[in-house]
Amino acid sequence: MMEIIKCCVCTIEFAVNEDFFQMRKRDGEGFFCPVGHKQHFSENEIDRLKQENRYLRDRKEELELHSQMMKHVANGYKGQLAKVKKQLAAQGEVEVSS
After folding, report:
1. How far apart are CA 80 and CA 74, in angstroms?
2. I need a labelling partner for 84 at 20 to 30 A (CA). Which of 52, 67, 73, 94 fits?
3. CB 44 within 8 A of CB 25
4. Over the stretch 3-12, which tens digit does the pLDDT of each residue have?
């Protein structure tokens, strides 16, 4: 299978085989159009995946911290609810159930 590439200088379209295309996308190395203009893919696949991996790790850490914070908030509300129930029970206004 062939991949069509358009030269960023002269706009000529040319075909390269799929293996070559994938290899250049992965390694970011340069190649030439048929007229001789140097070409390259601005972001190789390895760099893109590293950047995506960093983003996902950072996002995971953010979400874990947020989850911990929400658990603390929920526990605080549970404590407040228990306190109010106890006060109401002491006043005889409500039955306390767990």
Report:
1. 10
2. 67
3. yes
4. 999 998 999 9
Whether this model's pTM surpasses 0.70: no
Residue given tokens 């159930």 in the structure block:
97
Alpha-carbon gap, residue 23 to 46, rounded angstroms: 11
Cα separation, 17 vs 63, in Å, equals 43
- Burial (CB count within 10 angstroms: exposed 0-12, middle 13-18, buried 19+), residue 76: exposed
Closest CA relative to residue 98, chosen from 84, 82, 83, 79: 82
Both tokens assigned to 72: 């603390």
C-alpha to C-alpha distances, 89 to 12, 42, 70, 73, 86, nearest whole angstrom? 83, 69, 28, 24, 5
- Joined together, the tokens standing for residue 9 give 């200088």
H helices of the chain, in order, are: 18-27, 45-90
